Amino acid regulated cytosolic protein
Amino acid sequence: MRLSDLADGVVRSVETVADTVIQPFSDPVIRLGVTGLSRAGKTVFITSLVANLMDRGRMPQFLPAANGAIRTAYLQPQPDDTIPRFPFEDHLSKLTSPTPVWPEGTRNVSELRLSLRVQPTGMIAGLTGPRTVHIDIVDYPGEWLLDLGLLDKSYRQWSDETLARMQGRDLAADALAAVNSADGSAVLDEPSAGQLAGVFTDYLNAARDAGYSDLSPGRFLLPGDLKGSPVLTFAPLPEGDKPRGSLAREFERRYEAYKRQVVKPFFQNHFAKIDRQIVLIDVLGAIHHGPKAVEDLRTAMADILAAFRPGRNAWLTRLLGGRRVDKILFAATKADHLHHHQHPKLTNITRALVRDAIDRADFAGAQTDAMSIAALRTTTEDTVAHDGASLDVVRGALIDGRQAAFYPGALPDDPSVLLSPARDGVEKWLDQDYSVMNFAPAPLTRRAGDGPPHIRIDRAAQFLLGDRL
């Protein structure tokens, strides 16, 4: 263990002890982390969740709302002055305007504090008055979460694993040709290094567009103000000599700097302080892109869970070793793209897809669940005749304004029908084609006290927050 790592651990322990001492005398705080890989719907989920916690008419399965324990909900400034505020009002305005549009996706860390005034229920209801519970929602790109797995990998390990994944992907041909032809033992040349990193970044973007999930280093996709910096100017290289001053030696140094200066501060400053976590997963999108995308998603989810340090957040555990995520929800998004008859199948596929992650979390003492949700319902259900049979479809407006009835294909009752060929590396599904549709948000008509229409946001809130309210 390096001295810097030991010092970091001491600092975190001191912060944890301080939190433990102060917390009994302050309002309780639940830090909810929201993440998911690209296009999983993080921004819309947070917007809908907050709107439905403020106007709770569509939250019957969220018990503190259903039994009237929540007296009021209001937004407050987030406690960390250095983190951008999640622009809730702007996003809600876009989703609820007469001509609604999807808001822009997550590109950086942001935070929002929602405070709930709660009247205790049960035996102590008459003994105490209302209390305030703060929910600090932390939004961050899922691509950054994948980087946490790099902390335990050397440059050699990361290069070997990344190049092995690239071998089976046609879209990686240009990047593979570039790295295989590079002479890692040659003296570092910055223009050549930048060109190599650029080709590798182009591959990561193409892989994301093709539905793949394991795309580290994640900051290559969302560089922000680090764009063009040496810490984002490296690429995997085949094993070989790396004398002092060589391209390979410098790439290794920059990889270690990336972990030390980019990944580790994110873990310490944001991720390690989370109590509850929801991981949003575009399962339907992965199925549409084929078996390789499904297998890539499965392995990515297993790697992600290793970063959560799951376990019960007991007083002694926090005093001795820091906070741990004690509840994790894996949510398949875009359930409104399916008729409700297929929702149980989607949930079963999701649960099987993250089985390795769930088993690891359950063993560590965390509580996990999987469900199918739609943060904003964009469709209605219908049944149509087709080739002498009845099809359960959904209807909605496409991005170009056309109305469409959509049938994505019949999901299997047994998840292994999809996961087994995905593990075996087959190129395409044998018996079924699965489609996705880009629906636009529908104009909303809401009664007073109603949040945006959704599917199971109330159940997600009950799992993540209900026991603390």
Notes: The radius of gyration is 23 Å.
